[in-house]
Structure prediction request, 129 residues.
Amino acid sequence: MSDSAKFDAIPGTYVFDGKRCREGYHLNMFCKSMEREENRRAYTEDPAGYLDRYPMTPEQRRLVEARDWLGMLHAGGNIYYMLKLISYDRSTLQHVGGQMTGMTVDEFRDMLAEGRMGPAGLGPARQAR
Prediction:
C-alpha cells in the first residue's frame, strides 16, 4: 500500500501528493492568480471569461463557481492556493471550515476553541465524505 493510500482511510485527510498536484494544476493556478490585483479585477469584470483562461475540468470549474471548498480539495486543490480565492471573496478559513464541516461559523469557532478537532468533533458534511 502506498503512503498516500494509507491516509485515505483517515476521515477528513486529503494528501496533496503528486497525483493530486497534477489533477489540480489548472485549478490551483487559477486560485494563485488571485494574488495579483489586475487578475482580481479581470475576474470581477468577467468571471466566465477569466475562468476560460484555465483549462480546468468541467467539475473543477463547477466547484470554483459554487465555492465548494471541500470539493476543490478532492479535485486537487491545494489550500494554500485556495486561500487566494478565499481572500478574494473576503472570507476566512473559519467560514470555509464551517462550510466544509456543515457547521455555522460560530459552531466551527466554538469547536476550535474547545479543542474538539478530532473526527468525533467534526460536523456531518465532513464525516460523510
